Amino acid sequence: MSEQTPETDGARRAREALEDSGIDHRILVSTERASSLAEAAAQRGIEPRDIVKSLVVRRGSGDYVFVLVPGDREISWPKLRTHLGVNRLSMPPAEKAREATGYERGTITPFGSTTAWPVVLDSTAAGRTISLGAGAHGTSVTLEADDLVRVLDAEVVDVTDPAQPGASAPPRRP
């Protein structure tokens, strides 16, 4: 890390978890804040579908799961509920997501989370090189999805649908 961009606690935790995992990865720190998925993909030199959003979903009181969703897709709440065997899921408020993971919204990653919640990777991301957040704004990691599945013991399941045009955030009330 350069002296101009000190490493945040979140970025340090994510980096250390990635290093400890032993998987090949590349961390990228951008000084430019992306204003769209397309811009973020261009900064990383990848396709928008290869940026994977790390979403923390509440499935019960004090019980969460990471759902990893390709950039061109959105959670299918019926598919996710069926897979998890629950009738109700929700997106926690920002403070609850931070309490559950140690990361603020926009920086959440399963790597270095303060609690190792289960991970679900959408099946459309399997077998590809993907990029996801790495614990700080402007910090991302590129790695093989199959390595992520192996080291995080992630389930690979069809839990998404193509994103609707203009959709930029997951719905609040699943």
CATH architecture: Alpha-Beta Complex
Count of the domains: 1
Order the strands across the largest sheet as they lie in space. 1-7-6-2-3-5-8
* CATH class type: Alpha Beta
Gist of the model:
This protein is of the alpha/beta class. Helices cover 26% and strands 27% of the residues.
What does this structure look like?
The chain has 174 residues and is α/β, with parallel strands linked by helices. It contains 5 helices and 9 strands; from the N terminus they run αβαβββααβββαββ. The chain has helices at 9-21, 37-44, 77-84, 94-101, 145-152; strands at residues 25-29, 51-60, 63-70, 73-75, 119-122, 129-133, 139-144, 155-157, 160-162. The strands form 2 sheets. Strands 1-7-6-2-3-5-8 form a 7-stranded mixed beta sheet, sandwiched between helices. Strands 4-9 form a two-stranded antiparallel sheet. A hairpin with a 2-residue loop joins strand 2 and strand 3. Mean pLDDT is 92; it is low at 169-173.
Which terms would index this structure?
single chain, alpha/beta, seven-stranded mixed β-sheet, two-stranded antiparallel sheet, 26% helix, 27% strand, globular, disordered C terminus
Secondary-structure map:
Blueprint: H1 9-21, E1 25-29, H2 37-44, E2 51-60, E3 63-70, E4 73-75, H3 77-84, H4 94-101, E5 119-122, E6 129-133, E7 139-144, H5 145-152, E8 155-157, E9 160-162
Parallel strand pairs: 2-6, 3-5, 5-8
Antiparallel strand pairs: 1-7, 2-3, 4-9, 6-7
